[in-house]
């Protein structure tokens, strides 16, 4: 089993492809895995990516056998699978790691501690690599599923100090990663000024996702200091997307 956190820490540039099982039938996984391998090859060359991952999860995950879905993906790809959970129900021993998220940008106790407590009993006996991750929802210009489900407001991008302080607090709380998320289908991504300022305050890797639709968008985020970028909607809409 790969040491996911170690590979992220040691890599210069990581890229994660976010997949929502609610939006992909299990029967479609083999074709997806085959097609996305070409996309991965192209992006590796264009962006000098060191490590690729699949982030798997969603806000609700209704009518999906999550464990079987993850296993099907694992059978069809050798890319490490990291669970990006929307709730404590989204656990699977077929994955390689779990982002143990705490929504530090909100004040809803359900996503600060309650979901984590509910997951903890299962994780006591789990072989998953658990990576504590401070999760910050940043305003991406539209209401997101995360906002609706968590009943929390995103941090406004004009309030740089608040975003930096939240990220730094997440580090002080012992998180091993910080994730700045503009949300699925965001109209605007997290600004490079924010990425640059947050990176300067942290000594742990920074993940940035939401609203990144071109190679230049992604390159700018890397250049600003992010160690990992997450792409979801662009590939979801066009499996052959390469920026």
From TrEMBL:
Cofactor dependence: Mg(2+)
Annotated positions binding Mg(2+): 20, 59
EC number from the UniProt entry: 2.5.1.41
Keyword Amino-acid biosynthesis attached: no
Spans through the membrane: none
GO MF term set: imidazoleglycerol-phosphate synthase activity; magnesium ion binding; phosphoglycerol geranylgeranyltransferase activity
Keywords of this entry: Lipid biosynthesis, Lipid metabolism, Magnesium, Metal-binding, Phospholipid biosynthesis, Phospholipid metabolism, Transferase
Any one biological process term the GO annotation gives: glycerophospholipid biosynthetic process
Reaction(s) the record says it catalyses: sn-glycerol 1-phosphate + (2E,6E,10E)-geranylgeranyl diphosphate = sn-3-O-(geranylgeranyl)glycerol 1-phosphate + diphosphate
Amino acids binding sn-glycerol 1-phosphate: 179-185, 210-211, 232-233
Stored PANTHER family: GERANYLGERANYLGLYCERYL PHOSPHATE SYNTHASE, IMIDAZOLE GLYCEROL PHOSPHATE SYNTHASE SUBUNIT HISF/H IGP SYNTHASE SUBUNIT HISF/H
NCBIfam families from the UniProt entry: GGGP-family (TIGR01768), PRK04169.1-2 (NF003198)
Assigned protein family: Belongs to the GGGP/HepGP synthase family. Group II subfamily.
Function in brief: Prenyltransferase that catalyzes the transfer of the geranylgeranyl moiety of geranylgeranyl diphosphate (GGPP) to the C3 hydroxyl of sn-glycerol-1-phosphate (G1P).
Entry protein name: Geranylgeranylglyceryl phosphate synthase
